[in-house]
Amino acid sequence: MSEIAAEVTDLLQGLIRNGCINDGTPGSGQEIRNAELLAAHLHGCGLEIETFEPVAGRTSLLAKLEGTDPSAPALMLMGHTDVVPVDADGWQRDPLGGELVDGVVWGRGAIDMLNLTAAMAVATRRLAASGRRPRGSLLFLAVADEEAGGALGAGWLAEHATDAIRCDYVITENGGVLQHTPAGERIGITVGEKGICWCRVIVHGTPGHGSRPLHSDNAVVKAAEVVTRLSGYRTAAHITDAWRRWVAGMGFQPEVATALVDPARIWEGIDALPRALAGMAHALTHLTVSPNVIRGGEKTNVIPGRVELEIDIRKVPGQSDEDVLEFFDTALGPLRNDVTIEVIQRDDPSESPADTPLWDAITRAATAVYPEATCIPTLTPGGTDARFFRAMGIPAYGMALYSRDMSLEQFSAMFHANDERVDQESLRLTAELYGAVAKALLG
Ligand SMILES: [Zn+2]
Questions:
Q1: Using CA atoms, how far apart are residues 3 and 104, in angstroms rounded to an integer?
Q2: Per-residue pLDDT tens for 127-156?
Q3: b/e string for 203-238 if b means 16 or more Cβ within 10 A?
Q4: Closest CA to 12 of 138, 145, 107, 128
Q5: 421-423: strand order across its sheet
Q6: Is the pLDDT of residue 274 over 90?
Q7: How many angstroms is it from 93 CA to the middle of ligand 1?
Q8: How would you classify the pairing of strands 288-296 and 306-315?
Q9: Is residue 249 within 8 Å of 376, Cβ to Cβ?
């Protein structure tokens, strides 16, 4: 096994074992443990290291290799150090054990995204330790709190440490999985993401005695209808340029490709795709609506007067919160008068241009490994910290590089799920990709 794979593996195992689980409460995460582990790894090779701690224990780390030419571009590698909660019952191995079994590292965060954070740290350390100063500066930012929206991590830094994190290009999660299409091999580089508009829907009824339900105004019964209508409503397709480019790049059969970019026929296209791609295709072309939390009712013999729903709604680039409110009006019809809607959390969709020097550097490095493959821009339905940098006008892409052992289906299915794991070959490829991109871009 290569030295670089061993180094990334070792660091990744440590990051997993620290178990910086972010459950959304300010006291959780305690990413200070991973920040300290990374600081120890990066120590002693000429990097300037700074930490930020907006709340006790919620530490983010910034390491900087100062370039020789202030006018040359600066590249940031940004990885988060927190992970989502985990239920060990569904796992074949200890989710916080960081076990290495037959060349595969197991554990929460092995894919999202401690694998990339470890690879970034190793690429940064190696460039600094080489003694060769690039013209442009390399920044490595290990942030807390990504899994709860970044308010105590990248979001906080964007607001309170703007100058420290200023750069010209950002690489973060995700991307770099090899896909086999009828037109050949493709590698997706993530250039944009959907926006969120998470809503609380309060369904109003009238309390009464459970023994006489006829003509009652039961909030639970109404909520059932609200959930059915919201989740069953087929929102209109919204086709973006990035989507068109992705469809063109994937080499689908002509009739499928045509349907996928035609709002009137898009369901023909989606239904023709394999399951994993269909969910992705739907999400990247539609306002999606997923009712995920329901709270209501107090007692078996009391007709409830109130039910609360929490709905995960996500907007395609080009859609706004107004589109979300319009959706509620249309989908609920007269029931709209029986509910109150509050926006709990929101963020705009974001997209970076795909014609930048960073794009060129990444595609060159990726195709040096997979000469048969073509890189195509893609959007992600989830949210990442890239959006804070896109809002500052800085191009931010999601990119890594995976081995041929990683299929897109397997990759997508492991996020926040059971048996998260990554092979060491992917760790090596990712660290080498980051190193190659930094060298090419920074000079
Ligand atoms: Zn992540």
A1: 16
A2: 999 999 999 999 999 999 999 999 999 999
A3: bebeebeeeeeeebebbebbbeebbebbeeeebebb
A4: 107
A5: 100-101, 104-106, 421-423
A6: no
A7: 21
A8: antiparallel
A9: yes
Q: Which residue of the set 112, 146, 420, 423 is catalytic?
A: 146
**Phi and psi torsions of 36, nearest 5°:** -70, -40
User: Rg for the chain (alpha carbons), in Å?
Assistant: 23
Task: State in Å: Cα 264 to ligand 1 middle.
Answer: 34
Which residues are registered as beta bridge partners of 302? 209
80 C-alpha to ligand 1 centroid (Å) = 7
User: Cα–chain-centroid distance for residue 396?
Assistant: 13
- pTM to 2 decimals? 0.91
Q: Are 391 and 379 in contact (CB under 8 A)?
A: no
Residue 292 CA to residue 274 CA, distance in Å, equals 25
Q: Are 117 and 81 in contact (CB under 8 A)?
A: yes
Preceding amide of 280 cis, omega within 30: no
Q: How far is the CA of 113 from the centre of ligand 1 (A)?
A: 5
Structure tokens at 131: 């003694």
Cα dihedral 289→295→296→298 (10° resolution):
170
Question: What's the rounded Cα separation, in Å, for the pair 392 and 394?
Answer: 6
Q: State both tokens at 14.
A: 């440590």
d(CA 320, CA 306): 28
Q: Kindly report, residue by residue over 167-188, the tens digit of the pLDDT.
A: 999 999 999 999 988 889 999 9
**C-beta separation of 153 from 143 below 8 A:** yes
Cα–Cα distance for residue pair 343/249, rounded to 1 Å: 36
Closest CA to 421 of 20, 86, 53, 185: 86
Active site residue 146: yes
Candidate list 31, 82, 351, 432, residue with the active-site label? 82
Rounded-to-5 percentages of helix, strand, coil across the chain: 35, 25, 40
What average pLDDT is seen over the chain? 96
Of the candidates 331, 322, 328, the one whose C-alpha atom is nearest the C-alpha of residue 340 is: 328
Ligand 1 centroid to 245 CA: how many Å?
A: 25
